Structures are given as C-alpha cells and as structure tokens.
Automatic annotation (TrEMBL):
Stated name of the protein: TetR/AcrR family transcriptional regulator
InterPro entries, alphabetized: Homeodomain-like_sf, HTH_TetR, Tet_transcr_reg_TetR-rel_C_sf
SUPFAM superfamilies for this protein: Homeodomain-like, Tetracyclin repressor-like, C-terminal domain
Pfam families: TetR_N
Organismal lineage: Bacteria, Pseudomonadati, Pseudomonadota, Alphaproteobacteria, Acetobacterales
HTH tetR-type domain: residues covered: 1-54
Record feature DNA-binding region, as residue ranges: 17-36
PROSITE patterns, per database record: HTH_TETR_2 (PS50977)
C-alpha cells in the first residue's frame, strides 16, 4: 500500500502498474492481483487508506490543539510535506486531476477525502470565527481546500516548493487562512 501510494503521488493513477508495484515490493504481479483484482480496487483501497489516515491525523490535531492558526499551520505543513518528499502531490489531489479516467469506486473514495477535509476545515473555522454564519464558513473551507491543493499543484509543476510557501503566506495575508 505504501509503495502504491508513493507511486500515485509521484506519477498519478494512470501510471499505476501492477507489474511495477510488484517489482518495487519484491513480489510477483499475481500476488498484488490476489489482494486487488483490478486497478480500480487498488486505487480505491489506496484512496480509502489515505483518507482514513488523514482523517485520524486531522482529528488528532483538533484533540490536542486549540489555537486555529497553529492548527492551520500543521494542516498546510501536511500538504507541504508531500512536496518535500520528492515533489509528490496529495494522493487524492493528483487523482482528482485524472477524474475522467478513474473508475467509479476510486472516484467515491477521492470524493470522501474532499468531504473529510472540508468538514474538518469548517470545524477549525468555527473555532476561529464562532459568530460567522455557517454558509460563509462552508465557502471559506472550500476556498481554503482549493487554494492549498492548487498551490501544491502549481508548486509541483514548477518544481519549486517556494511557490507553495509564498502562496500560503499570501492566503494568510488576505485572511483566507486563519
């Protein structure tokens, strides 16, 4: 699963290959097929695990921290870490870029990742802006998620993590990110 995640983060879902994955982990391709009969099954499992692990990490942030700015510092650092790891992308972000080519079971899991992040961001925004109306918080959460994923994509494309850092500073400066 780790090798599959890293492969997709580096090259996208379309480049995911049972043969290459098996070679990377030192097993036969048939062994991978045994656990994941189709590429869609493997892609869905990768996205599901990524979402579950991400959700647990985000919930841990909320359970252990109370300052919204510090919580958001940790959140943006998660996305930055993928770039710092050989210029990789968020797994579900890169899969979203290939949405038209994804099997339905993978799309469902990618959508769950977005939903988890949006709901979590709204929870953080409620802490930061307790009197703000819910529709405004929903819109801001959507804008934050899109902005962070977009900054990651542009930084990756330019092979310049500094673009991500400057974008995050700009988002903070405009008040988009608490």
């Amino acid at each position: 699963m780790t090798a599959g995640r890293l492969a997709v983060q580096a090259h996208g879902y379309n480049a995911l290959s049972f043969r290459e994955l098996a070679k990377d982990v030192g097993v036969k391709s048939a062994s991978v097929h045994y656990h994941f009969p189709t590429k869609g099954d493997l892609g869905a499992a990768l996205a599901r695990r990524y979402t579950e692990e991400g959700s647990a990490a985000l919930n841990e942030l909320l359970a252990t921290m109370s300052n919204p700015a510090q919580i958001m510092d940790r959140y943006v650092a998660i996305f930055r870490a993928a770039l710092a790891n050989d210029n990789r992308m968020c797994l579900c972000g890169i899969m979203s870029a290939e949405l038209d080519d994804l099997p339905e079971e993978v799309r469902v899991e990618v959508d769950k990742f977005a939903a988890v992040n949006l709901a979590w961001l709204e929870r953080v925004l409620v802490i930061a802006q307790p009197k703000a109306p819910k529709p405004a918080l929903t819109d801001q959460a959507t804008a934050i998620f899109a902005a962070i994923e977009g900054a990651q994509l542009v930084a990756r494309g330019c092979q310049d993590i500094g673009i991500y850092d400057r974008s995050i500073r700009a988002y903070r400066g405009t008040g988009l990110i608490p």
